[in-house]
C-alpha cells in the first residue's frame, strides 16, 4: 500500500467521513446466519454422528473445543489473508459437506460437515471482529461491536428455535436441510463483505484522538503484556461463570425448588436482554477513552461471580415465586455483564497496531476454552452432592472464590491502565 493510499485510508477512518451501521449489514447478517446454523445442528448432532451416542458426545465436545483452540492460528490466517477469503473457503466446504451428507445420508460425511461448521463458527467470530477493526473508525468500535454481539446472541437463540419448530413436523435428519440452507446463505452473504487489508508492517497506525484532516500525527498504540494477560484471564473467568450457570442452574432449581422450568426462563430472558443491552451499551460507550473502557470491562467482569454467589444465598421463602425471581435476577446480572464486557474488550483488542488484530481476537476466543474447562470442574463441584444445603454451600464457595479472583484481576487491569499504551503487547 502506497503512502498516498494509506493517507486516504487514514482520512476515511479517522476524520469527518464516518462509516454507518448500514455499511456493516453483510457483517451483521453473516454473524447471525453462522450462529443460527451452528446452534441449529449442534444440539442434535449427537444423534447423527456415526458412533455410539456416548462416543458421539465425546466427539462433539472435542470438535467444539478444537474449533475454539484453532481460533489463535485462524487469527493469524485472517491477519495475512483478510476476513473475506477464509470465510468463503470454509463456508463453501462446509455447505458442500452438508449437501453431500444429506444426499448420501452418510454419518462419516456428516462428521466432516460438523468439523466444517465447528471451524466456521470461530473463524467468523474472529474474522468479522477483525474486519470491523479495520473498516470502522475508532470512535465507532463500541457501537459496531455492540451490534455484532447482539446479532450473534439473536442467532444463538434463533438456531435452536428453528430446529425445534422443524422437529414438530419432520424427523431429526431434516435439521441437516435447515443447517445446509443457513450455511448456503452464509456463503452468499460472505461475498458481500467489504474486506480490508491489515495495516502494513512498518507503518505506524494513527492515533484517532490526535488525527485531523491534513495534519496526521501518529504513534504506535499497544498494551502491556501484563494488561493483555489480565484481560484474557478475566475473559476466561467470565466464560467459566457463564458455562457454570449453563451446566448447573437446572439441576440446582430441581433440587432447591423442585421445578426446572425457571431455568428456561433464565436462558430466554438472558438471551433477549443481552441482545438489547449490547446495542444500547455499545452506543453509550462510543466516546469513552481506552482507560475508561478498561475500567468498564473490569466492572462487568466482576458481575458473573456475583451471580453464582447470589444463587447460593437466595432464600426459599420469598413470595410470588422464588425460582422465577432468582432466574430473573441471574439473567439481569449476566446480561449487564455481557453488555459491559463484549464491546469493551473487542474495542481494546481492535486498537492494537500493525498486523496483530486477528491474533488478538483469536487469543480471546481460545481463552474461552480455558473458561469452559474450569466451568466443568466448578459444575461438578456444585452438583456432586444433590442436596439443598450441599449445593447452596457449593454455589457460595464457588462464587466467593471466583469473585476474589475476578476482583484481583480487575484491580490488576485498572492499575495496569496507567502504563497500558506505553509499549506494544
Question: Can you put this structure into words, describing what you see?
Answer:
By secondary structure, this protein is mostly helical. Helices cover 74% and strands 0% of the residues. It has helices at 3-14, 25-41, 53-69, 71-81, 84-104, 107-135, 141-167, 175-190, 225-257, 261-284, 290-313, 322-350, 357-383, 388-416.
Number of strands: 0
- Average of the residue pLDDT scores: 82
Tally of alpha and pi helices: 14
Estimate the strand proportion: under 5%
Helix content: over 70%
Gap between N and C termini:
25 Å
Order of helices and strands, N to C? HHHHHHHHHHHHHH
Low-confidence stretches: 1-18, 198-220, 421-425
Radius of gyration: 22 Å
Structural class: mainly alpha
The largest pleated sheet is described as: none
Write down the overall geometry: globular
Amino acid at each position: 500500500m502506497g503512502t498516498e493510499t494509506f493517507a486516504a485510508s487514514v482520512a476515511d477512518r479517522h476524520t469527518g467521513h464516518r462509516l454507518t451501521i448500514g455499511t456493516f449489514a453483510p457483517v451483521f447478517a453473516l454473524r447471525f446466519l453462522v450462529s443460527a446454523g451452528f446452534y441449529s445442528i449442534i444440539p442434535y448432532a449427537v444423534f447423527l454422528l456415526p458412533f455410539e451416542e456416548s462416543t458421539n458426545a465425546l466427539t462433539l465436545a472435542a470438535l467444539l473445543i478444537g474449533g475454539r483452540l484453532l481460533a489463535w492460528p485462524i487469527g493469524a490466517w485472517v491477519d495475512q489473508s483478510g476476513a473475506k477469503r477464509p470465510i468463503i473457503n470454509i463456508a463453501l466446504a462446509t455447505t458442500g459437506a452438508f449437501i453431500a451428507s444429506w444426499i448420501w445420508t452418510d454419518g462419516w460425511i456428516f462428521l466432516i460437515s460438523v468439523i466444517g461448521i465447528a471451524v466456521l463458527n470461530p473463524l467468523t467470530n474472529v474474522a468479522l471482529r477483525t474486519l470491523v477493526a479495520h473498516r470502522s473508525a475508532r470512535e465507532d468500535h463500541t457501537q459496531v461491536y455492540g451490534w455484532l454481539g447482539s446479532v450473534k446472541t439473536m442467532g444463538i437463540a434463533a438456531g435452536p428455535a428453528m430446529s425445534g419448530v422443524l422437529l414438530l413436523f419432520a424427523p431429526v435428519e431434516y435439521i441437516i436441510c435447515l443447517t445446509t440452507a443457513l450455511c448456503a446463505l452464509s456463503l452468499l452473504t460472505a461475498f458481500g463483505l467489504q474486506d480490508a487489508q491489515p495495516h502494513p508492517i512498518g507503518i505506524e497506525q494513527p492515533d484517532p484522538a490526535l488525527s485531523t484532516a491534513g495534519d496526521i500525527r501518529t504513534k504506535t498504540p499497544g498494551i502491556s503484556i501484563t494488561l493483555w494477560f489480565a484481560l484474557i484471564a478475566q475473559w476466561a473467568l467470565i466464560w467459566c461463570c457463564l458455562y457454570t450457570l449453563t451446566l448447573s442452574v437446572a439441576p440446582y432449581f430441581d433440587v432447591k425448588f423442585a421445578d426446572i422450568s425457571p431455568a428456561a426462563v433464565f436462558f430466554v430472558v438472558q438471551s433477549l436482554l443481552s441482545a438489547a443491552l449490547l446495542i444500547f451499551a455499545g452506543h453509550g460507550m462510543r466516546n469513552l477513552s481506552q482507560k475508561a473502557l478498561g475500567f468498564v470491562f473490569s466492572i462487568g467482569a466482576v458481575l458473573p461471580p456475583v451471580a453464582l454467589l447470589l444463587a447460593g444465598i437466595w432464600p426459599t421463602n420469598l413470595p410470588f415465586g422464588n425460582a422465577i425471581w432468582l432466574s430473573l435476577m441471574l439473567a439481569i446480572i449476566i446480561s449487564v455483564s455481557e453488555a459491559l464486557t463484549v464491546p469493551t474488550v473487542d474495542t481494546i483488542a481492535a486498537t492494537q497496531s500493525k498486523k496483530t488484530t486477528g491474533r488478538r481476537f483469536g487469543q480471546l476466543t481460545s481463552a474461552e476454552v480455558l473458561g469452559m474447562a474450569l466451568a466443568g470442574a466448578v459444575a461438578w463441584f456444585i452438583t456432586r452432592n444433590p442436596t439443598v444445603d450441599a449445593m447452596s454451600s457449593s454455589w457460595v464457595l464457588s462464587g466467593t472464590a471466583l469473585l476474589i479472583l475476578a476482583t484481583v484481576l480487575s484491580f490488576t487491569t485498572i492499575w495496569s491502565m496507567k502504563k497500558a499504551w506505553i509499549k506494544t503487547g
